[in-house]
Design goal:
The complex is a heterodimer.
Chain A lengths: L1 E3 H4 L9 H9 L4 E8 L6 E11 L7 E6 L4 E6 L9 E5 L14 E3 L2 E3 L2 E2 L27 H5 L3 E7 L10 H12 L17 H4 L1 E4 L7 E8 L8 H9 L7 H13 L3 E5 L7 E6 L5 E3 L5 E3 L5 E4 L4 E4 L3 E2 L12 E7 L2 H11 L4 H6 L8 H16 L2 E2 L4 E4 L6 E6 H8 L7 H8 L4 E4 L3 E6 L9 H12 L20 H15 L3 E2 L5 E2 L1 H7 L8 E2 L10 E2 L4 H13 L5 E11 L7 E11 L15 H19 L17 E4 L14 E11 L2 E9 L1 H6 L6 E7 L1 H4 L17 E10 L4 H9 L6 E10 L8 E10 L8 H19 L2 E3 L2
Parallel strand pairs in A: 11-14, 26-30
Antiparallel strand pairs in A: 1-10, 2-10, 3-4, 3-6, 4-5, 6-9, 7-8, 12-20, 12-21, 12-22, 13-20, 14-17, 15-16, 17-18, 18-19, 23-25, 24-25, 27-29, 28-29, 30-31, 31-35, 32-33, 33-34, 34-35, 36-38, 36-39, 37-38
Chain B lengths: L2 H17 L3 H12 L4 H8 L8 H27 L26 H15 L3 E2 L5 E3 H4 L24 E3 L5 H9 L4 E10 L11 E11 L4 H16 L5 E8 L2 E10 L16 E10 L1 H6 L8 E8 H9 L6 H4 L2 H6 L3
Classes of the chains: A alpha+beta, B alpha+beta.
């Protein structure tokens, strides 16, 4: 809502400049979003009188005018068709700068000297009217600055009106608020009508078929109107308020809408078939072309204003083009009505059509002010358009709404606001806002909520009025009190936060991506489960069409984006929700963790340049996974973080063609991926990104990606570990190195080592793996360090050797591997 | 060779390595003792022939021989290699870059949420959450925002079907918690929200909020002001100012919006605060009795406050981030700058 201050001052006197007013309004809950100084007249524009007009000899569309500027007669060439001797017009003299940046100078135009520019309103930045020269009233003084006639520029406040306050969608409503804030009184505008001639009831018949949908409909008749351009003051006000001028009749309805907050509509009475107005529901198949020249299909839930045969307006939303004010209109039926807000809202939504009218009706107009606005518009039409108001008014009024009495207990107000208000202050606040206090005692008062305040329904609403006007700044802020609600349990959510800190401590940088993702990106990764995806109806952009069902695609995209900015390495994680639809749960969501590795992130500084191997990147992923797991859940008997194999409940397996639904395993390179399970239940995937996908982002080295559901990790997470007695007796370490074919995996070897292993074997750690000519093609050397320890005595070398020999024997017997000695 | 002989030979080798005058002499000594046909491999081979009781010691000494001499050779080689008139004889350089596993950090959004959790935890709040995909009931109806009222339009919603939507605010968590728990309730609920906003420097269709709710017998606007002001001082520093402006939200009555004084310009006016000196954080208010009725609380004997806060907003002013999109761009250089 745009409020020109000079206009507002018509209705209320207040001693404050624009900034002060803006601050007072803002702190009363009417937020001022901006203050603009508008409508300034450029300097060096004066009032000139055209004394003579001649056709330009070399150009048909140009005129040579003699213009009296008060001191001398100038020759000015103009293209305006309305140059007329005797008219007073704005003259931009030599040196004046117009709003479009043009500086006026003496020049020859097609051979004729021009010593200035005669201006139309748009050229002066006063309106968008370019129909011809701006013609000033005959009594305007020649030679005086134009600004004396126009007046000083005006401050225009942009207000954000909250949806509960339809009364503030008119200047009078704002004025009421200003009056309360400054202790002033509203000055109501004149609306006296000199009614004459025939009676409106004789000229037109109004029938309201649905009084619930239209509780009040008034019609007023104005005859002998002359449709034309509105006077400058009216157009200027509309322009400052951001409304386009059309013609005097339409401009007046718009002016009154801005003034009273009451939408009005003017029909050409002679175009209404049967001189009838019927307020009814639309019929199946009915259509109407509205004032915006668009044809709308109506349905029987919508309310229309119809003549004898067809709809002439979509009630409360927009008038029809056919029956609106035409250039030759003389008889006007002026509609001022009140419609049921929810109905107008629904119609407006169904049609996709909102207007200044529908905006106000769906918030609720003041049913008691319907006729006032009509009288006000009638008075202006009489004054400006020479219209003659007919006698009387048709007022189909279903009856005043029941009075709403609301009690405000002073104790309740004090308790809710946390401040004790001085005696008498509360009813005084209500009265200042024109909320009549109808009963009062020492503990409470009763307010009769006026019809212009539909938002006031309960005691809490009244307390808000007190807070607003009394001032929130007067409510004290003190040291806060701690209050523990002991029953609440939020461990699960805190654990999630803890997980983020953990992954950061492991060297990973957290990222946060949007929940929206493009279908293209998902498909690039894996199109295995498209039916699970939740699509966004009417997405905001093509990049954001799906609610992501995996964190991996954007993880890889983020790595790629960083690579495109010359970032060599990154180790990222994200913990966020993903969304998927299944028959059982059409809107399933779960929290997942994703990890992405690019470049030599896991390497020591001086080794960054060595080529990355796939094995290395994979091992980093696995290292992160196990470290993360270990920090969350300490497993019994597992005390060496190098020793992944001692972890029992977390497992990595090959896919075996079984990919759990909802995981983007198709993005991994074959044989470079694994399934993550906890307690036997698959909950994630990890692996190296397919070459063709990483090349999309020009990443040349292996990229590691991992994603898992967080919940299984958080089961029994972060439990207090229990201290155990440390071993008293020394341990003995023996190494075993073996030559194994590539097909024999570490896990196979560990299995044998641990199979029936003596209780003294406390740890097995792989410490070396290498390949050489000596070892032979297709073979590797793997070296393990085995630690033996007894809880109750010192193991002798012999015992340790015996134990170690038995392990070696098992390896030789069961795996047929060669044990490397010495 | 017996253990003592090995030790003697070791001393001899060390002496020769130490006194070598140039790289050539050093290499000669290395070949003599450590080379493939040198004295040490000879000893190693001979170990097998020793009586078993002597073997362990002899083995141990030979190993020590090997490692000590190898280390000595390496360091002497380095010294002699630089012996071109250079002053320093060994290669130790304390100015080389340090090496340790670099730690990562949480995202600035997480950092703000974690800090808010810490601050509100100190006031006795616990954390709650709810789904991103909400029902119309929790997101709107239960929050006194019926379909036929224009207050719905202030939040342009991503509808997924007739009844399901992406929550436009974290306020539905209020309802979910109150449905399960009788007063007192004292929670905060961080989470993602979604609005059909066009993305620009200060708007994001996907953003994060922290909801707060305190319900008990006697909760007042003064409590709300006190707690939010305390939060602001802890989060933004002791000099931050907070102001409250009346506003409208369907689920609170009275409702307010609250602003923090701009952290960057200390209230003088700058680009971040659009010259106003203030930055709008979010809305708050006293829980509307109609909301209490929806969850079966007695509005006569209960009172409560609720607030929301924009996480990105706070991050932007706290860290001086000019554009909200930088938070979702995930440029590692940007994130590292803000690592806490």
């Amino acid at each position: 809502m745009k409020i020109p201050l000079s206009w507002l001052r018509d209705y209320v006197d207040f001693d404050a400049d624009a900034n002060t007013l803006a601050e007072r309004l803002t702190f009363a809950g009417i937020e001022v979003e901006g203050i603009e100084l508008k409508g300034a007249v450029p300097e060096n524009i004066i009032v000139g009188e055209i004394t003579d007009v001649d056709q330009h000899i070399h150009a048909n569309h140009l005129y040579v005018c003699l213009v009296n500027n008060g001191a001398e007669i100038l020759r000015v060439v103009s293209a305006a068709g309305n140059c007329k001797a005797g008219d007073k017009v704005p003259l931009a003299g030599i040196g004046a700068t117009l709003p479009n940046g043009m500086t006026v100078k003496a020049e020859k135009i097609r051979g004729e000297l021009s010593q200035g520019v005669l201006c139309a309103e748009d050229e002066l930045g006063l309106s968008d009217d370019h129909s011809g020269l701006m013609v000033l009233p005959p009594d305007t003084k020649i030679g005086r600055p134009l600004s004396e006639f126009i007046g000083p520029p005006d401050h225009v406040l942009s207000l954000e009106i909250t949806p509960n306050r339809p009364d503030l969608l008119g200047l009078l409503g704002i004025a009421r608020e200003v009056a309360a804030l400054f202790g002033a009184k509203i000055k109501w505008p004149a609306c006296d009508l000199l009614e004459e001639g025939e009676s409106v009831q004789d000229a037109v018949a109004v029938a309201v078929e649905d009084s619930a949908a239209c509780p009040r409909y008034t019609g007023r008749l104005l005859t002998d109107a002359k449709v034309g351009q509105s006077p400058f003051w009216l157009r200027r006000r509309l322009s400052l308020a951001g409304v386009k001028a059309i013609n005097n009749i339409v401009d007046i309805t718009n002016y009154c809408l801005l003034e009273c907050g009451q939408p009005l509509h003017a029909f050409d009475l002679n175009l209404l078939a049967g001189k009838k107005i019927i307020v009814r529901r639309a019929r199946d198949g009915e259509k109407i072309t509205a004032l915006d020249d668009v044809e709308y299909k109506l349905d029987p839930q919508m309310l229309v204003i119809a003549d004898e045969f067809q709809p002439v307006a979509i009630a409360g939303v927009m008038g029809g083009a056919r029956t609106g004010i035409q250039p030759g209109t003389t008889s006007i039926l002026l509609e001022s009505a009140c419609f049921q807000p929810a109905l107008i809202r629904k119609t407006s939504k169904t049609l996709g059509l909102t207007s200044e009218s529908s905006y106000r009706f769906e918030r609720g107009v003041d049913i008691n002010q319907v006729d006032f606005a009509s009288r006000r518009a009638g008075a202006l039409m009489a004054q400006i358009a020479c219209a003659r108001p007919a006698k009387g008014v048709i007022d189909v009024f279903a009856g005043r709404p029941a009075e709403r009495k609301i009690i405000c207990r002073y104790s309740r107000a004090s308790n809710l606001l946390g401040v004790n208000l001085p005696a008498g202050r509360i009813p005084a606040i209500f009265n200042s806002l024109e909320l009549p206090v109808v009963a009062e005692d020492k503990d409470q008062c009763t307010v009769s909520a006026p019809t212009f305040r539909p938002d006031l329904e309960t005691e809490a609403d009244l307390i808000e009025e007190i807070a607003r006007i009394y001032g929130l700044d007067k409510i004290p802020a003190r040291d806060p009190l701690c209050h523990i609600v002991a029953s609440a349990d939020d461990k699960h959510i805190r654990d999630q936060l803890q997980c983020r800190q953990l992954l950061a401590a492991l060297g990973l940088q957290e990222i946060v991506n949007y929940s929206f993702v493009s279908e293209k990106l998902l498909d690039m990764f894996d199109s295995a489960f498209p039916e699970r995806r939740i699509k966004i109806p009417r997405p905001v952009s093509a990049e954001h069409t799906i609610l992501r069902d995996s964190l991996l695609p954007q993880m890889a995209e983020t790595l790629g984006r960083n690579r495109s900015r010359q970032i060599d390495e990154a180790a990222f994680f994200e913990i966020s929700r993903v969304f998927a639809g299944t028959d059982a749960a059409p809107f399933h969501e779960e929290t997942r963790t994703a990890v992405g590795l690019m470049g030599a992130a896991g390497r020591a500084l001086l080794h960054k340049r060595q080529a990355l191997t796939e094995a290395e990147v994979f091992s980093w992923l696995k290292g992160i996974l196990y470290n993360f797991y270990e920090k969350i859940r300490k497993e019994e008997g597992w005390d060496d973080s190098r020793n992944n194999d001692a972890v029992k409940r977390l497992a990595l397996d090959e896919f075996n063609g079984q990919i759990p639904a909802g995981f983007y395993a198709g993005c991994f390179k074959p044989n470079r991926s694994a399934l993550i399970s906890i307690d036997g239940a698959p909950c994630g995937v990890m692996g190296l990104l397919k070459d063709e996908i990483r090349r999309e982002w020009r990443i040349l080295e292996p990229v590691g990606l991992m994603e898992f559901i967080l919940d299984p990790f958080l089961k029994n997470a972060f439990l207090a570990p229990s201290a155990k007695t440390l071993p008293v007796y020394p341990s003995v370490t023996r190494d075993i190195a073996l030559r194994a074919p590539f097909s024999l995996r570490h896990a196979d070897i560990i299995k044998i080592i641990r199979k029936n292993s003596p209780k003294e074997l406390t740890s097995v750690v792989l410490f070396d793996i290498y390949f050489s000519k000596e070892i032979g093609a297709g073979f590797k050397s793997m070296a393990y360090s085995l630690t033996y320890q007894s809880p109750d005595r010192t193991l002798t070398d012999d015992e340790a050797n015996r134990l170690n020999e038995s392990v070696k024997k098992r390896l030789k017997d069961e795996l047929k591997v060669e044990i490397r000695e010495g | 060779m017996k253990a003592e002989d090995i030790l003697a030979l070791k001393n001899e080798a060390e002496q020769e390595l130490k006194t070598a005058k140039n790289a050539e002499e050093l290499e000669k000594a290395r070949i003599k003792y450590l080379g493939r046909k040198g004295l040490l491999p000879e000893i190693m081979k001979g170990l097998k022939t020793l009586p078993p009781e002597e073997r362990p010691d002899a083995g141990k000494y030979s190993n020590e021989f090997k490692s000590a001499c190898e280390a000595l050779f390496t360091s002497r080689l380095a010294e002699l290699g630089t012996d071109n008139g250079a002053e320093q004889k060994d290669s130790f350089d304390p100015t080389l870059p340090g090496q340790w596993q670099t730690s990562g950090s949480v995202h600035p959004i997480t950092a703000i949420i974690a800090e808010a959790v810490t601050i509100f935890s100190s006031l006795g709040f616990t954390i709650a959450d709810g789904p991103d995909i909400e029902t119309e009931y929790y997101n709107f109806d239960a929050l006194n925002t019926p379909d036929d009222h224009p207050s719905r339009d202030t939040q342009d919603t991503f509808w997924l079907d007739d009844k399901m939507l992406l929550r436009t605010q974290t306020s539905p968590v209020q309802i979910r918690v109150m449905e399960k728990q009788k007063p007192p309730v004292r929670i905060i609920a961080p989470g993602r929200c979604y609005r059909r906003d066009t993305t620009d420097a200060t708007h994001s269709a996907n953003f994060q909020q922290i909801e707060g709710l305190y319900v008990d017998k006697n909760v007042s606007m003064a409590d709300l002001k006190s707690d939010i002001s305390y939060f602001a001082r802890r989060m933004m520093g002791p000099n931050v100012k907070v102001r409250f402006r009346p506003h409208f939200f369907p689920f609170t009555e009275p409702s307010v919006e609250y602003d923090f004084s701009c952290h960057l310009c200390r209230g003088k006016g700058c680009r971040i605060c659009k010259q106003s000196g203030w930055i709008e954080i979010s809305g708050a208010g006293m829980v509307n009795p109609k909301v209490f009725q929806k969850v079966g609380y007695d509005p006569e004997t209960t009172a409560g406050y609720a607030f929301g806060m924009g996480v990105e907003r706070i991050a932007m002013i706290k860290f001086g981030i000019p554009d909200i999109r930088m938070l979702y761009d995930n440029d590692i250089r940007f994130l590292r700058q803000l690592a806490l």
